[in-house]
Here is the input.
Amino acid sequence: MKIINSPRVMSISLSALFTCAAFLFSAANASAHGYISSPKSRVLICKENDPASPTLPACIAAREAGNNGFYEPQGVQIYGALDNHQQLIPDGKLCSIGRGDYAGLDLVRDDWPTTLVDAGVREFVWTNTAQVKTRYFRYYITKEGFNPATTPLKWSDLELIHDSGPANQEAVSRHLVNLPHRTGKHIVYSIWQRDWQIDAAEAFYQCVDVEFRPTSSTSSSSSRPSSHSSSSANNICANLPVWSATAVYTRSQQVQYNNKRYSANYWTRGNNPERYSAPYDHWSYLGSCEVTSSSSRTSSSAPASRSSSSTSSPLPG
Here is the structure.
């Protein structure tokens, strides 16, 4: 058998090999998707409601506005995001990221299905159909006073409430997110940014509709004397910077994050103190930012006694 070893044949073989490798790499990239499965995101709810024949009013309206992408809730993505989310996604288009096949997600309506929540720590779960290196998962929530029934979602409406920091490949990513006090309906906006230095610059986006349960008021007015205790919370983190994934911290530097106080154990950057706090880890946990003090006192909104010469009309009864 004659072996052909010409430069031209070798060149063609190498070219074919590189083309095949590039195809496999692209295929792996294309499958690297994720979506929030708990609480269910807006796009997942409409996907499960049948994009071709939905029954939920909001999903019916979204179908008319553009919902071809709803078959793939994991596909709300920008390939070259590279942390430039606000520059790439215009106001009013945050849920669809400006893509026509997801345009229905941006509709301003009062009937998007919501998940009932309370202020405090809540688990959010990303289901990842491919496992990749992560730069961060970030969670934002709309500010108090925002009304999703009348206002298109803008970047200025959002407040950052959680940054996971870097993570390895995960099929399911779970995050304990501290929801601040809110009233009524709000939107939680989440971004999953892949690590562009060792993986790819791609990012994924999800909108989650939540509704805060009403809280009962503990205050009451009375003309009768009453004994009660009061408490006040002193924020000892008021002068501490909020942890940033891009900032550099050195030994003994303190930060605040999710209403907690941390001290750096050594030089660190991009390591979320909530995930990396232990005696020999990047951070040491110093406790809550709020220190509560209590006091008891007796008060009355009515005078204890009246002079017989008083000209005021007596209190009834």
